[in-house]
Amino acid sequence: MTGPTEPNHPTADFPARNRPGAPAFDFDLVNDQKTGVYEARTGGTEVAGLTYQAAGANRIVLLATAVLPEFRHQGIATELIRRVLDDVRAQGKTVTITCPIVRTFIEHHPAYADLVDHDHPGAGTGVHGS
């Protein structure tokens, strides 16, 4: 069985529809390791993405989050970030944050703060797990 850490593989392991604040529609999470983008796809169309860069074997740098204009304000960025961080956790990796949207998400969801790399938290981050 394949999973989200494999290139270009959609993941249906994250049932978003039942989660409070979830987007109005569900999407597949695709990790395109070749381009360094976690994609939110629905109906074969990429509606959002979170770019990243590998920083060694156990850390990734979360660079930027983008949502197509017609899909904004529907909770997609929030759910995309949640799914990416869940995937990072499943891989046993940490993150360095340069994306302010990811930084704000973690500040509002401290259960993810332990994923922030203590030696390389990112620019302007004050988020650390206890």
UniProtKB/TrEMBL annotation:
Pfam families: Acetyltransf_CG. SUPFAM superfamilies: Acyl-CoA N-acyltransferases (Nat). It comes from Actinacidiphila acidipaludis. The lineage of its organism: Bacteria, Bacillati, Actinomycetota, Actinomycetes, Kitasatosporales. Residues 30-117 form the N-acetyltransferase domain. This is N-acetyltransferase.
